[in-house]
């Protein structure tokens, strides 16, 4: 970053550098790589006996044409694209892209459904007010969503949060809004199936959006991401969370922050593709054999 343009008030410690979008990039190549790795996916879910392609009309409708020179215009383009998608009655499963995209998607989702519940799986709360002086970014989407009344805050859960922060209690703001915060320490060494039965009770029958940041998983499993944090969730726990969303009134899901250049094995994108398949397999009207 050009020292001339940096804001000294928001850029004074190594952790601020590490937490910002200037650390790692190439998240824009995530969807392309997830599509490549999704060639491995078959039609049925052997674990749950779900038959998504017998249950729903499923299509890859391609990318939203974003403006890489202008994040605000990008958000506008995403919001308008999702308005049209949602107007068809489609339940969008989105591949990211960085977590910024959850904000304009949720704007369109809330316009249709009203304030929604949120199952947010992530290493980070993504509730910063500003990052490097900017209101729009991948560290701020859920703060913006709350400000605009897009979330039903009593029906928000954040799972897997961890890592160094900007203050001793990084999740205080979340709790003040009424979110349930499940730091990763509460997830270590255990099945998350019991947690998810509590989450289903919290979400009730209202509309729910599922936002899954691949960095929720341990970087040993998913190193190809922008802001890795050690001691994360296992892929098994990720699957338990998604399967635990079965029965919820899901109105949209995303899988974000896959950065292919940081994982030359392709395994992060493969994991992302499988998690998206698991999401598909818990959508309303799913047929299970
Ligand atoms: Mn995130």
TrEMBL record:
Keyword annotations of the record: Hydrolase, Metal-binding
Gene3D superfamilies to which the protein is assigned, alphabetical: Ureohydrolase domain
One Pfam family linked to the record: Arginase
Highest taxon, organism lineage: Eukaryota
Statement: the UniProt record of this protein carries the keyword Cell membrane: no
Keyword Hydrolase (UniProt): yes
Protein family (similarity comment): Belongs to the arginase family. Agmatinase subfamily.
Protein name: Agmatinase
Organism, scientific name: Ataeniobius toweri
Taxon lineage: Eukaryota, Metazoa, Chordata, Craniata, Vertebrata
